[in-house]
């Protein structure tokens, strides 16, 4: 199941309208709608963090479908990602850092 469908399912299970979820999470209702309808396929970690907090689930639960065969991210990685997010590092900056690390390994 896609992230948007999981968000919609959890929102409905909790009896929340799009407006209620948007107001509680501090995000635009139209953006939540576009995620739920799978128009927006790559929501930010900040968005997922806000939504998961209101829905009272972990970001991991939004990202990973229990039926997926993908490995679960261990708690240390989640803590590092959360720390990076809270420090204000953008996804683009994080991607650049990873690319630099890969480049360093190939040029040693």
UniProtKB/TrEMBL annotation:
In which domain of life is the source organism classified? Answer: Bacteria
Query: Among its keywords, does the record have DNA-binding?
Result: yes
Which residue range or ranges hold the Sin domain? 64-102
Q: Does the keyword Cell inner membrane apply?
A: no
Matching Pfam families: HTH_3, SinI
Checking SUPFAM superfamilies in the record gives: lambda repressor-like DNA-binding domains, SinR repressor dimerisation domain-like
Key words, A-Z = DNA-binding
**Name the record gives this protein:** Helix-turn-helix domain-containing protein
């Amino acid at each position: 199941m896609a992230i948007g469908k999981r968000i919609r399912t959890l929102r409905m299970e909790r009896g929340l309208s799009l407006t209620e979820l948007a107001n509680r999470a501090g995000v635009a209702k139209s953006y939540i709608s576009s995620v739920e309808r799978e128009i927006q396929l790559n929501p930010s970690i900040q968005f997922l963090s806000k939504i998961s907090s209101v829905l009272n689930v972990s970001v991991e639960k939004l990202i990973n479908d229990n039926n997926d065969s993908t490995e679960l991210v261990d708690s240390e990685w989640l803590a590092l990602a959360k720390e990076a997010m809270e420090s204000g590092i953008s996804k683009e900056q994080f991607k650049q850092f990873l690319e630099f690390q890969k480049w360093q390994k190939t040029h040693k």
